[in-house]
Design a protein that fits this description.
Chains A, B, C: Keywords: Lyase. Chains A, B, C: InterPro entries: Aldolase_TIM, Arch_ComA, ComA_synth, ComA_synth_sf. The structure is a homotrimer. The first copy, chain A, is of the alpha/beta class. Helices cover 41% and strands 14% of the residues of chain A. Chain A has one domain: Aldolase class I (TIM Barrel, Alpha-Beta Barrel). The first copy, chain A, is globular, with a radius of gyration of 18 Å. In chain A, α1 runs parallel beside α2 and α7 runs parallel beside α8. At the A-B interface, α1 and α10 of A face α1, α2, α3 and α4 of B.
Chain lengths: 251, 251, 251
């Protein structure tokens, strides 16, 4: 039971995706006691899982599982392995390590639509939950997308079988995806997106507080958010529940 | 005994208020071994204590007590409960959980002066140390205050019985209270404030290093500072003692 | 063995210097299990070791030693002790605590060339590995250096016997050393530096990701980098190995 239970606050059913950047298993075990119940997905950011010991990666995945949290390596690692011709080795190693999801992205490489479709389907066949991502890591390349193109890419990934589609926001949240160079949300583009795709299938990467606030005020406290840092999980939960100045009594 | 004790550095009697944003009990226990002696108050930031398990909140309060640190929930939680008609439930739950202080603020809601006076006195009657806060969470609303108005509000809270008055700085330290949009201190306003209120009754929220430096260089190493993050407690102590470039040999 | 070992990623022989800002011994022990193998030097930042208990400082140094990591107190503490006439006490206390290196800097004080030469030689005589630093903590003073002056200072320190020379970047990485006020690398100055000094003797302080990326893209994954925060050690290792968008497949 939470403290101040007379407030009868309700916990939602939204998706919250948090980044593991290489924290220690003990740090995570301890932190999960506090905030594990608010996390749906953990992403081992970009290629970080490939520079950590196998035992450590497995140990952390087991800790997450105890809280019902599903894990996957960042899409960059998929891209790295795919581009080196190791896609099947990648899927097998993910299985062996205990990951339950796969992210299929093309943020750092060019992947033709057929290959992305194939990769999503292949990962589904291996029994993974599939999160795809739309967007480029490079500011220059990402800025070439019109919002209508992004929408087409989202739709295509859903058709291919992706369970969720992530809108790129990187760890910085600036000059990327739906954010301008100051990290502010491009609200007109967001509205066009929201009219054209099922928002409950989307996970918005929103590393910064003002971004989390904007999404919550627009879509309600049940909006799916990603690239949350461990340190901000409790803060995000207070934003969702109207317990911080920015969303006070508003959700 | 500290390392390099031949320097005969002295620890002051100032107040240092640190934010607990939902860290784990173990993280805190371990960190306090290093920096517990430099902390006076811990604020469970805004509404974070209401999204954590009762046992965890109590456990952390006990850890803090071992170091003589006094704890309280952020003012936003008071405001939330007060506006929902749960003020007495709030005070009782704080007692039961082991909090020793209460923050009375109106950063996110409108509270007429009579109600603020009443709330401060009520919290005192329940036996709490009372910290009041002056300032608004919203940049627009906060910017409407003239410095002379802030001074009046500070004086009124002290008359009502507040043990300390906090000058709002938020977690960001920008465009709020005494800080401009770049987080720089408005030094003229600070001087007017300092002439009109007892500075030892004030806790300046100063989350960023340049702000801590400015307050220390102006008021000496004994100035009361708040909204310090756990990671910066040791850094702040070096600033207070002239052991970092910014205040080198100056305090 | 790391996860995803089929990628046969190679670990380099570069120097990575990480800042200990006063974290707890337990936090560090746990973190080192994950990233200890990627760290060469730990700097107890500026004067932080002088505000921590002797036992805690010693305990952490021992933990680091288990991973072959060499430790030293920040140069600011040397400057503080030197300017107070406690240089020998300083060297002895460092020995007793278990530090294996000394940083000789003049970032916060004026130190004439003879004194810097003397200090470097003295620290060598005491059996320490010596890291010297070139640069000023103050933005105004640091900006007075022409790049050719910096080069002369680097050369002089190497002649005096410094094992490595650190180029000042502070914890912020802005308006200092080789960085402009936005934290961008001044590439022309870097080229002049690289032509005139042995780069493998230099440790570039590069606290921000874009800076780490620029150095890796210019000098390869073996470049020596410093002022890395604990939280970013794993990230840096992925940058070095081409496993993050910014250096994808490039190193």
């Amino acid at each position: 039971m939470n403290a101040f239970s007379f407030l009868k606050l309700k916990t939602g059913t939204e998706q919250t995706m948090v980044i593991d950047k290489g924290q220690s298993p003990e740090f995570i075990d301890n932190y999960l006691r506090v905030c594990g119940k608010y996390i749906t997905f953990i992403k081992f950011g970009w290629g970080t899982s490939a520079v950590q010991e196998r035992e450590i990666v497995s140990e952390k995945i087991k800790s997450y599982k105890k809280y019902g949290i599903k894990t996957y390596p960042g899409g960059t690692l998929f891209e790295y392995c795919f581009s080196k011709g190791f896609f099947e080795e990648y899927l097998l190693e993910c299985k062996n390590l205990g990951f339950e999801c796969i992210e299929i992205s093309d943020g750092s490489m060019d992947l033709n639509p057929k290959d992305k479709d194939y990769a999503i389907k292949m990962a589904k066949e291996y029994g993974f939950i599939v999160l795809s991502e739309v967007g480029k890591k490079s500011i220059e390349k990402d800025s070439e997308f019109e919002i209508l193109e992004r929408i087409e890419l989202v739709k295509k990934d859903i058709e291919s079988g992706a369970d969720f589609v992530i809108i790129e926001g990187r760890e910085s949240g600036k000059s990327i995806g739906l954010f301008d160079d100051k990290g502010n949300l491009k609200k007109e583009e967001l509205e066009i997106l929201a009219e054209n795709v099922p928002v409950n299938k989307i996970i918005f990467e929103a590393p910064n507080k003002n971004q989390q606030v904007d999404f919550i005020l627009r879509f309600g406290n049940g909006v799916n958010l990603g690239n949350i840092s461990f340190e901000e999980v409790i803060s995000l939960e207070t934003l969702r529940k109207g317990l911080r100045g920015d969303t006070f009594l508003k959700s």
